[in-house]
Amino acid sequence: MKTKLIVTLFLALSAIGFSQKKEIKEAAKALKSGQLDVASDALKAAEGLIEGADVKLKSQFYFIKGQVLASSAGDSLEKLEGAANVYAKVIEIEKAEGVSKFTQGASQKLVALRQSLVEKAIKDQDAGDYKAAEKKLYLSYITNKEDVVYLYYAAGNAINGKDYDTALKHYEELQRLGYDGVKEEFIATKKETGAVEVFGSKQLRDISVKTGEYIKPESRMTESKKGEIAKNIALIYVNQGKNQEAIAAIENAKSENPNDSSLMQAEADLYYKLGDIAKYKEIMEKIVANDPENPDLIYNLGVSASRLGNNDQALDYYKKALEIKPDYVSAQINIAALILGRETKVVDEMNALGTSSADNKRYEELKKERTNIYTTAVPYLEGALKTNPDNIDAIRTLMNIFYQLDDPKADIMKNKLKALEGGN
Question: What pTM was estimated for this model as a whole?
Answer without folding.
Answer: 0.60
